[in-house]
Amino acid sequence: MTAAGLPAGPGALRRHNLGLVLGALRGGPLSRAELAARTGLTRATVATLVEPLLDGGVLAEELAVPRGVGRPSRPLRFHERGPVALGVAIDVDALTVAGVDLGGRVVALERVEGDNRQLPAAAILARAGELAAQVRAALGRPVLGAGVAVPGLLGEPGSGAGSGTAAGSGTAGGIGAAGGIRRGGGVVLRAPNLPLLTGTRPGPVLAAALGVPVSVENEATLGALAHLGLAPDFVYLSAGIGLGGGVVIGGRVFRGARGLAGELGHVVIERDGPRCGCGGRGCVEQYAGRGALLRDAGLPDVDALRHALDLGERRATAAVRRAGSALGVAVASVVNLLDVPTIVLGGDYAELADVLGPALAGELRNRSLHPDPPRVIASDADGSAAVRGAARLVLEDALRAPDRLTAAP
């Protein structure tokens, strides 16, 4: 049935079935019989669906595997030269581009360090486009599109809403296996740590540079998207120059009506505390963000802080514990409101998790209303969560519109 309650036509049914097959293959190679068992489709239907993708270089067959009596099976997998998605992350201190294949494997990753805070928006976007074009050329593979992670709030001025979902996606403020995807027209309404991006539309600029569809989303939201599958419900926390976060409920990233859900860095923990870049006071970012952490520890960068922790230096250890406690105060309110059982630490927090995590968990034990407080785990994304999530936006869209796989430029 369609969203309007009408029977699905043959084309829509085929796209749905093909999405099931491709989704199953993201877990690894499977034979046609195994695909039929996983998806509930008949073997004949599976065979009909996969043949055009084999001919189009999207799928490949592995060597036959004898499995008892009968004809040996030939597992199917994504082709090593098949379509990819590009992820682009615009950070305060770097630009990162990744190529991610249909199985979710990062096949290219390039990062260029540099302070973007004083650069005009046009220069930032031009550099991002150039780096993405270089990665695309080096890959030499069909590109489905690009997702772009931006450290700011996206939307349309005066719309009363965030960046929204694609028309007809049938979603309400969520991104996930069945969720919507933002197209490239959104305006950066607010970017406290990269203020010169405010008022720009990164999507059309990068789409013109790359010649492929571009989707744009908040970096922390995409960081959360990169961790789908870790748990059905969790809060994702990531520290860099700023402090971002994302909320996942029921396996979907919850964005809220205006795209603001997950702005955990601006949860107030002290009403008359230090002024924040957002214009408020006492935001947890001023106590647990990278800048606050390094000032408190008296160290120049996170590498030096990590080294000091490894040596057991008291000032560094105390600074990280204080940051973890401040973070715990903020997150406890979120946990009590949303009843999420898992906290995922990303960015700088993943690097410091052995010291910061216990301090955060201690506050959650003391402040959580539930007798079983949330578990705290560190991300294993090696600082690339936002760029992986950006690519995943495109890959999720491809599963919903699989005909694009054989039409990618």
Automatic annotation (TrEMBL):
<dbReference type="Pfam" id="PF00480">
    <property type="entry name" value="ROK"/>
</dbReference>
<dbReference type="InterPro" id="IPR043129">
    <property type="entry name" value="ATPase_NBD"/>
</dbReference>
<protein>
    <submittedName>
        <fullName>ROK family transcriptional regulator</fullName>
    </submittedName>
</protein>
<dbReference type="InterPro" id="IPR036390">
    <property type="entry name" value="WH_DNA-bd_sf"/>
</dbReference>
<dbReference type="InterPro" id="IPR000600">
    <property type="entry name" value="ROK"/>
</dbReference>
<dbReference type="InterPro" id="IPR036388">
    <property type="entry name" value="WH-like_DNA-bd_sf"/>
</dbReference>
<comment type="similarity">
    <text>Belongs to the ROK (NagC/XylR) family.</text>
</comment>
